[in-house]
Amino acid sequence: MFSRTIVRISVVVGVVFGLQQPIVFAQPVDATEKVTQLNREALAAIDKREFEKARELLKRALDLCKSEGLEQHPAAARTHIHMGVVIIQGFKNHELGRKQFAKALAIDPNITITKTLSTPGLEEAFAEAKAGGGALAGGDDDGAPATPPSGGGARPAGETRTDAPSSSGFSYHTVSEVKQGSSIVVTVSVDESLKFSKLVLAYREQGTSDFLGREMEPVGEGAYRAEIPASATSGS
Hints:
By secondary structure, the protein is of the alpha+beta class. The chain has helices at residues 31-47, 51-67, 74-91, 94-107, 120-132; strands at residues 14-16, 23-25, 160-163, 170-177, 184-190, 200-203, 212-215, 217-220, 223-228. The strands form three sheets. Strands 3-4-5-9-8 form a five-stranded antiparallel β-sheet, with no helix packed on it. It has a two-stranded antiparallel ribbon with strand order 1-2. A two-stranded antiparallel ribbon has the order 6-7.
């Protein structure tokens, strides 16, 4: 598990106009404007296919909505839409993406996917979320899986791999150590009797409670792989 620390500093400026005049304080930037700006930056990151960056920006926007009491604001609804797009397009997790769409619809039933991001696949997921109503709207704000997969631990150092025993029809290569700032490739072997639609690798950075998911790709008969990006292995 790996961490990234963000320090926020607020500054209040006072101006005095003579001894008999009251002190005038500069007004803080409206929280909704900050949320909107974070969404703009996230859209730019999505356009560049920088999904990790987009996800982090949108998570910051949702955290701000929560801290400022804007969880039912239209800006929060739009942020959930963008988070759903990132989760589906960037991390290939349609179920959690639909949950983000459902969160947006719960706030604003008339909201639609941002036109510049719309694709047939996203529109289909959005339609499913709309048909499901609030029943889909559970889960964390960043669309993280509720629990991590087995054998996902890692710590920066030399890399060590071991085969874990078979469980529920599949076995996997665990990674107990990895060089800081290096990506981690995780592979699994699936029993031919196990039926499934897809496999998802979940991981989280140190110091966070949020998991991200990546769909695993076939790399041979009964074998699948996915990679934890280097950007997630910068912790201690």
